[in-house]
Design goal:
The protein is α+β, with helices and mostly antiparallel strands. The protein has four domains: 77 residues; 50 residues, no CATH class; 49 residues, no CATH class; 198 residues, hypothetical protein PF0899 fold. Helices cover 32% and strands 23% of the residues. The chain has ten helices and 16 strands. The strands form five sheets. A six-stranded mixed sheet has the order 9-16-13-10-12-11. A hairpin with a 2-residue loop joins strand 2 and strand 3. The longest helix has 35 residues. 16% of the residues are buried.
Length: 448
C-alpha cells in the first residue's frame, strides 16, 4: 500500500466514524427518553444492547483510524527517496554554472585512455581510472578498469547491501517456566520427596483402651493422633556444561559486521535447544542431566479418545492437583499446540482464546505454555515449575572468540564458542505429569 492509498483509506474511515456518530446521536435522541420526568431514563434491554453496539462499533472505527495514521507515517517515510534524485542534483548544479562531462567523454580524455591510445591499444596496459562526477553523492566514484586495450563500465545506479535477515521470532524455552536461580557449586544435592500418606483425622480427647469410644471409667486413655507417612530419598544432580563452537575466517567477520551477531545468536539458540532437551529427557548417565520425564516418581497420563487435546491436558492437571501440587506450566510440541489453538467447539468458535492482536500470553487452562521442538510430538509435560523442580545457573550462556585454537592464528580463522553450566534439581516429582495425547474419536473408539 502507498501513502496515497493510506490517505484514501483514512478518509473513508473518518467518514464512517462521522456516520456512526450521527447514528448514535439520532438513536439517543429518539430512543433514550426521560419518561419519568425526574431525570431517569427508562431503556429496554433491546435498546440498551443496540446503543452499546453502536458505541463499540464507533470505538472500533476510531481504533482503525489511529492505526491507519501510524501506518500513513510509515508509508510517507518509505515513499521518500533515499537521496536527492540524480536529475535534480544535475539541474540544480548546472543552474549554478557547473559543467558535467559524460562518463564516456571523461574516460576518453583521461590520461589512462590517452596512454592506451598512444600504445595502439597493444601491450600490457593496465590501470584504473577514477572520475568523481558527483552525480550520486560527493563521495561516490565511477570506476573504469582497463586491461590489454579493453575497458568495462558499471551500470548506472548503485548497489545496496541488504545484509542478512535475522530471525524474527524469539523461541520459547523450557527455562522460561522456571524462576531465576543461581549457584556457585559444582554439584547439587538434596532430599527428594517420593510419597506422602495423609492420615490426619479428628482425635477425641479420651478413648477406651481398645481405641473405641471412651467409657468414662478409669481404664480410658488419652486419644492418640494417627500417624502419617512420608517417603524421601537423597539425590545428587551434576552441574553440566552445554556448548558448541564454529570456525569463521577473520576476513568474513571484518567484512560482514552483522554476521558475528547472527552467529552468536544462533550459537546461543543451539545451546538453549540442547538445554530444553536435557531438562526434559536427559538420561542422567555420566555428566548428563537427569531430565524431568526420566525422574523416578513422576506421574504418567494417557488421554481418553473421547477428549480433545485441551480436555486431556485438563485431566492431567487433576493428577497433579490430587497430589497436592498446583501446576503452572505445560510444555508442548509446536504441532500439538497448533492443534490446540485450532480446536473448535460445536459452533465453530475457537476454544483457546489467544489474541495475537494484543500479544496475549500463551495459556491453556491457566497454564503458561512453552512450545518447543525439543518436546516429542504427541507428548506433553505439565508441572509445578519452580516448586517441584528448580533450574540453577552456574554460568549463564557466554560467547567467546579466540584465535588460539589449533591453527587458527596461522590460518587466519577465529573460533566462536557458546557454552553454559546449569543444573536441575527435582525435589517433588509427583508435581509433574508426563502425558500422551490420544487421537480424538467422538465415539470413543466404539464405532458409529
Amino acid at each position: 500500500m502507498s501513502a496515497s492509498a493510506s490517505r484514501a483509506r483514512l478518509r473513508e474511515l473518518q467518514q464512517a466514524l462521522e456516520t456512526k456518530t450521527a447514528a448514535i446521536n439520532d438513536f439517543a435522541s429518539k430512543r433514550l427518553r426521560d419518561e419519568t420526568g425526574r431525570g431517569h431514563f427508562v431503556v429496554s434491554k433491546e435498546d440498551h444492547a443496540e446503543y452499546l453496539k453502536l458505541i463499540n462499533e464507533a470505538n472500533e472505527i476510531k481504533g482503525l483510524i489511529d492505526a491507519e495514521k501510524k501506518a500513513l507515517g510509515l508509508y510517507e517515510y518509505l515513499d521518500q527517496p533515499e537521496r536527492d534524485p540524480v536529475a535534480g542534483v544535475i539541474a540544480a548544479q548546472q543552474a549554478r554554472g557547473m559543467q558535467y562531462k559524460s562518463l564516456s567523454q571523461a574516460f576518453i580524455e583521461s590520461e589512462a585512455y590517452q596512454a592506451m591510445k598512444a600504445a595502439g591499444f597493444r601491450g600490457d596496459v593496465r590501470g584504473v581510472a577514477e572520475f568523481n562526477q558527483g552525480l550520486y553523492s560527493f563521495e561516490t566514484k565511477d570506476i573504469f578498469t582497463m586491461s590489454a586495450g579493453t575497458h568495462t563500465t558499471p551500470a548506472f545506479g548503485h548497489g545496496q547491501d541488504v545484509g542478512i535477515s535475522e530471525r524474527q521470532r524469539r523461541t520459547n524455552r523450557v527455562r522460561d517456566l522456571f524462576p531465576a536461580e543461581s549457584t556457585t557449586a559444582n554439584i547439587l544435592y538434596g532430599i527428594r520427596q517420593t510419597g506422602f500418606t495423609n492420615n490426619a483425622a479428628v482425635t477425641p480427647e479420651r478413648t477406651a483402651q481398645n481405641g473405641g469410644p471412651a467409657t468414662g471409667g478409669p481404664t480410658d486413655v488419652f486419644g492418640r493422633l494417627p500417624q502419617s507417612a512420608f517417603q524421601f530419598t537423597p539425590y545428587t544432580a551434576p552441574i553440566v556444561e552445554i556448548g558448541h563452537y564454529v570456525l569463521v575466517h577473520k576476513n568474513t567477520l571484518a567484512d560482514e559486521n552483522r554476521l558475528r551477531g547472527i552467529i552468536e545468536r544462533d550459537l546461543i539458540d543451539g545451546v538453549k535447544l540442547s538445554e530444553d532437551y536435557e531438562i526434559l529427557f536427559g538420561d542422567g548417565v555420566g555428566e548428563n542431566m537427569l531430565g524431568l520425564t526420566q525422574t523416578p516418581g513422576i506421574q504418567l497420563y494417557t488421554g481418553l479418545p473421547t477428549d480433545k487435546k485441551t480436555a486431556q491436558i485438563r485431566r492431567a492437571m487433576t493428577k497433579a492437583i490430587l497430589a497436592y501440587y498446583e501446576p503452572n506450566g505445560v510444555v508442548l510440541h509446536p504441532l500439538d499446540f497448533e492443534d490446540i489453538e485450532l480446536e473448535e467447539d460445536k459452533t465453530g468458535a475457537y476454544r483457546v482464546a489467544v489474541s495475537v492482536a494484543i500479544g496475549a500470553e500463551k495459556r491453556v487452562w491457566r497454564l503458561n505454555v512453552v512450545d518447543t521442538p525439543a518436546m516429542l510430538e504427541g507428548k506433553f509435560l505439565i508441572g509445578s515449575w519452580g516448586y517441584g523442580a528448580k533450574l540453577y545457573d552456574r554460568e549463564q550462556v557466554t560467547v567467546q572468540v579466540s584465535t588460539e585454537h589449533a591453527t587458527g592464528f596461522t590460518d587466519g580463522y577465529v573460533t566462536i564458542k557458546a557454552s553454559e553450566r546449569v543444573g536441575l534439581a527435582v525435589d517433588r516429582p509427583e508435581s509433574f505429569v508426563y502425558g500422551t495425547f490420544t487421537p480424538y474419536d467422538e465415539n470413543g473408539g466404539g464405532g458409529a
